[in-house]
Structure formats: C-alpha cells, structure tokens
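anyone else get weird line breaks when pasting these?? whatever heres mine. first is seq + tokens for prot A
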Amino acid sequence: MKKFMLISVVVTTLCSTLSSLGALDLELTQGFDGAIPIAVVPFSGEAGDDNAISNVVVSDLSYCGRFRVMAKNKMTQLPHAVESVNKSAWQQLGMDNLVVGKVERNGNKIHVTYQLIDIYGKEGVLLDRTFTADDRNLRSLAHHISDQIYEQLIGKKGFFSTHIAYVLIQGNEGPLKRYNLIVADADGYSPQKLLVSKEPIMSPRWSFDGKQIAYVSFEGQRASIYVQNVMTGARRVVAAFPGINGAPAWSPDNSKLAMVLSKSGVPKIYVMNLSTNQLTQITDGFSIDTEPRWSPDGKSLIFTSNRSGSGPQIYQVSAFGGSIKRLTFNGNYNASGNFTPDGKSIVLLHQEEGVFSIGRLDLTNSHFQILTDTTRDQSPSVAPNGDMLLYATRHNDRQVLGMVSIDGRIQLRLPAQEGDVREPAWSTL
C-alpha cells in the first residue's frame, strides 16, 4: 500500500507540470500536386506571434499537405472582412480560397470572427463564424477553425483539435536515462509529461472518449498495465499477473481492455471488463498471440500471431472468441495492425527484404499498398478521420515520429527537440 501511495503522489505532481521538453517540430517532406490553393490573411487585432490564430491555421493547413498555403509576403492586399476582398486580385495570384478575420478584446473575453471565401464560386462566403474565447483557449480555437475549413473544402472532419501520446526517451544508458509518457496537441504543441520513470514505458493507448490512457510500465522490474486519467493524473493497475502483461487496447465503448497475458504460459489475447475486472480468454493454443486491436463496431479483434508456422501475420477473431481468420498474405511478416475508422482497411507494419514499412490492406478487395519509403518504421496509429497515420521511424540516427496520408501521397516528420520519440498513439477525439 505504501508503494502505491508514493507512485500516485509522484504521478499527480508530474501531470500538473507543463514542459516544452519533448515538443515536436513539424516538417512536411512530401505533398501532392492536387493541393488546394488558399490564403490566410493575418487577422486584425491579433498578436503576431506563433500562437496568433491566423498563424496556427496557416501551420495546420500547411502541414496536412492538402493545401498550398500562400506566403504572407506574397499577398498584395490584407483585407479583414469579405466586403474588402478584391476577388480578381486573388484570382491573379492563383488562389481558390481566402480566409479573413478579426480579433476584438472586451475585458477578459476575446471575440473572433472569420470568413472562408470562395474566390471563383457564386456562393462567395462558404463559412462565416464568430466565437468567444480567452487567451488560454486561442490556440484550441485556431485548431477548431482549421477543422472547419478542412471539412468544408475536403469533405471530411479535420484532425487538428485531436491529441497524440508518445514515449520520449532522454539520457544515455544507466541512471540518467528517463522514459517520459507525453501527451500533446496533434501538431506537437503543448506537450505534458503524464509520467516519468527510470523504467521502460510502452504501448500507450487512448480511450475512445479521450479521457484516459492505458499503457505498460516496468516499475518494480516487472511489466504491468496501468490506466491513467489524463486530466487528473489518477491511475490504477489493471493487470499485474505473473509473466507478460502487455499491449492494452480499449473497446469502442471504453468498458473493456483487450490485452496480452502469459499467465497460462504462452502469450494469449484476453479481454478484461473494467467494471468487474473479469477476464475472458479469447485465443488459445501454442502460438504467440499479441497486439490486439478492436474493430470500430466492437464485434471483433485483430491480432498478430505466428500461428501460421512462419513469420507473424494478422488474424481476426470475434470479441467473444471462436474461429480465427487470417487476414494478411503479402510477404512473411505483417504485424501491428490497426483498423481505419470506417473498418474497411487495416494499417500495419510490413517487412520486406529487411525493410520495415507502413502498409495498408483494403479488406473489401484485398489490395495491399506500401505507404512509407523509410526503412525502420513501427507502431502505426490512425487519425480519427482516417486521413493520416502516425508512426515511429528513424531519421539521422534518431527515433522520430512520422505522419503519412492514407494514400501515401503526403509525408511529414515530427522530430523532438530533445531525445528519441517512439510508441505513438493518436486520440479518437
């Protein structure tokens, strides 16, 4: 009991401390020719720093790769309302869309108005929105505006207001080495240390309501699965059986965790009811089964196994157990499967000729596509809108995060300012 109380105090203290350590720097490495031309004019009344609403929107739309955002020094006019826009001038600059807006302060409240303008279309104003916020929420509001613009022009919900989790490793081998569980905005800003440990942290996974993270920690020289509240820092151990306790995965209704346990001797897939702690064994036999992930409808699980007798492949089983179906047949190594939100594809780690890449398998027609051109990729995680993937890779002898679009045409790198980053997980909200 004393040990548990000590851990709880340490974690709560860490959660209340914000740190820029471990922030990520977005770098677009590959876009595509069909990017939509758009200009975001600096809003009147806003500060000119990185947190200014227009600057955040420019950053969001630029790094997602689907927009060709005009540089401010190329703008020949700076309108702040639709009435001041000279459409022919923007047409000559090759713009299809324009964002204008203004920021007005009234005491502690900030009123933000913006318009998204179709330069060529008859409709003219596509979006006209007004918000009230305060200084603490301006960056979140900017991400929300980016989401609205993305949905209006792309036809799918944006992902700029979501969050990511990852493990940041700092220090050399030995007593100075530290493992940090970090949560941050989707663009890498506002990183928070959820947990710091001398022992490894692995497999962070968001609950579907975005309020909790399950992960594996090796505190006390043994692997245990923890569930932690992101806002309060409160956490509890949910699995500390003899042997392996690993690879937690939330059910879509947040009521269960799938996990890997070896308490019977061989790693197998189990499902735990988080209300009752009741365990149900899903797979059996002599094979090594790991990395469970739920289908979007919660009716089945995919997992990695060597049950075919060769390299690892991805299989599917009912969430209640029963017959097992093999899904992957491209090559002799496929692992770390994750469903896309529509349930029609899985993204996975694929090895071919010693190269580890991120791939996508279309479950409707069995078409398989390699998405990344790097060589040491791992841990793919899907954005809640299904457009982008987050994964771990290596660049310049460092562990970094990468992003790639679901069609492989857009690629980004997100290196940390200090340390190596790995084990990424994208929130569902």
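and prot B, same format (seq, then tokens)
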Amino acid sequence: MPSENLNMDDLTGARRKSIAESIHTISVEELKALGEGLFPLVNHPWREKFFNFLSENSGAAFYHAVTDDSVHVIYCPAREKGIWFLPGSGMGPMQPKGLRILKEIVEGLR
C-alpha cells in the first residue's frame, strides 16, 4: 500500500490494542533524537515536518506508541494534535477519528 494512502484514521482493533500497550510519555529530547535517527539528512522533506510539529507544540506533553505493523504515532493531548510515520515510507497528520481514539487511550492511563 502506498504511504500516501495509509489512513491512521482507520485504527483497526489490532492497531488500537498495540497502541494502548505501547503508549508512553516521551520527552522532547527523546523525540528530537528519534527525528535525527529517522531523518539524518537536513534536506529530507519529512524532517522539516517532524521538527515543525515539535516546535509548534513546544512546552506540551507528548506520547509515543508503535502499532503492531510498525507505524509510529506521536500525540500531543494539550493541542489535540498528532502525527504518524512509517519509517522509510511515509508520514502524515492524525485525523479527527484517530485523535479521538488516542485521547481515549491516554485518558485511560490516568
């Protein structure tokens, strides 16, 4: 499936379960290190999008999870924003349905 068609809005039961099992808080420093590893070339187009997401939401808490099919999810509950990425393949913003599911999962942790 082409990465442009990966719709994180359609969180299957298996994805939802793996997100619930793997979700954890992650510091901005850890996210920056993750971004450096994923996008080591300064001119990589996804690098800019990734680091812009971090800077646009600076000062907020972030959560990170990985689905059973290796899709990474980063969620910022304070801003109700999130992104997904499949290393080496694609990246995109979380859509409203996926954000609602992430919000439910994070609220369940508290």
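btw re prot B: Residues 1-5 have pLDDT under 50 and may be disordered. The CA atoms of residues 39 and 47 lie 5 Å apart.
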